[in-house]
Design a protein that fits this description.
Elements lengths: L6 H22 L1 H4 L10 H12 L7 H16 L6 H18 L4 H25 L7 H34 L1
Helix pairs in contact: 1-3, 1-4, 3-5, 3-6, 3-7, 4-5, 5-6, 6-7
Length: 173
Amino acid sequence: MYRLSKMRFGFPIGLFLLLFVDGSVSQVFSRQMFNTPSVMVSHLVVLWLVCGVLFEENMAMPLVKWAAVIGAVFDLYYTGIFGVYIFVFPLVVYLTRQLVNYISPNFLSGLLIYFIDITIVEALSFVASRAVHMTSMSGSSFLVNTLGPTLAFNLAMFVILYFPIRWVYNWLK
């Protein structure tokens, strides 16, 4: 079914489009998003991947492969080196699929799953940055100044974009 649908081409196009929208949002709103000491990080790529799991229903899409590809591109495009996202994005897809087995996918459960996924993405990114001494921020500082604002921004983006993304997925099917 996946091979014969528009989803075969639409999903990667949307994924790469949101990769660049992530950077554009960060650039355009850099004064508001990166105001010291608080930092808000846009994760629209994760939103597209999570929605891919929520809306795939009976259409088995190769989301883990696309997550690894976009993780590699994300790392190389934004940091210049292979980093944590090449592993974190496929982990997010796997975790979301596991959660969807126990929770019926709808708007509120999707919001909860996205909350969990963003927390994992940011926490693993923080742990990796601490491991290679890219940051000296304490854990409590990370929770208050980075994780909290990032969750607020991304959950607001989920609320705003959930129904348009669902419409796009239905159109692509």
